[in-house]
Each structure stands twice: as C-alpha cells, then as structure tokens.
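Structure request: DUF5062 family protein, Catenovulum adriaticum.
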Amino acid sequence: MKKLKNESALLKKALEIGETYANNRGFNSFSGTDSSKQKIECIYRLLVNDKLIAPLPEDKEDLLSMKHRLAMWIAKKLPDNHPLLK
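Returned structure:
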C-alpha cells in the first residue's frame, strides 16, 4: 500500500465529506464522544454498502487500510487542482 501525499489531510477531508454524506442518508450525527476509529469504520462501511468504494478483503480489513481507502476515495473526488493533491 503506497502512502499518498498529504494522506492525513485527505483523511480529514474524507471524514468531513463522509459525515455530511451519512447525515444526508439519514444517519444521526456523530456525537462528540465518538472516537475517530468509530467514525472511520462507520463511514467506510456506509460507502462500501452504497457501492461508492470497493470493499477491502476481509483479512486486510483493519483501521490503517480503511483510512487509506477513504483517503484514496476523496483524492479521486477532488478536482485535479485542489491544494491537497499537490
């Protein structure tokens, strides 16, 4: 798995967009006590369920892989000239 440039910033953006997407789908907002791990897993599973991202193989489904998959997802959705992609 090749690390993306600005991967942590891309993940932050993916969580922001993913949370908005989840709210639009009828998911109650995340609470202030929800950990980032819970948010990552929830958003990942929602996007897989809606077939917006390909699922990871079951034996490779860990937090780091989910973070990377979400960062890749948002990197493909951002315009080519976005500052996070430079």
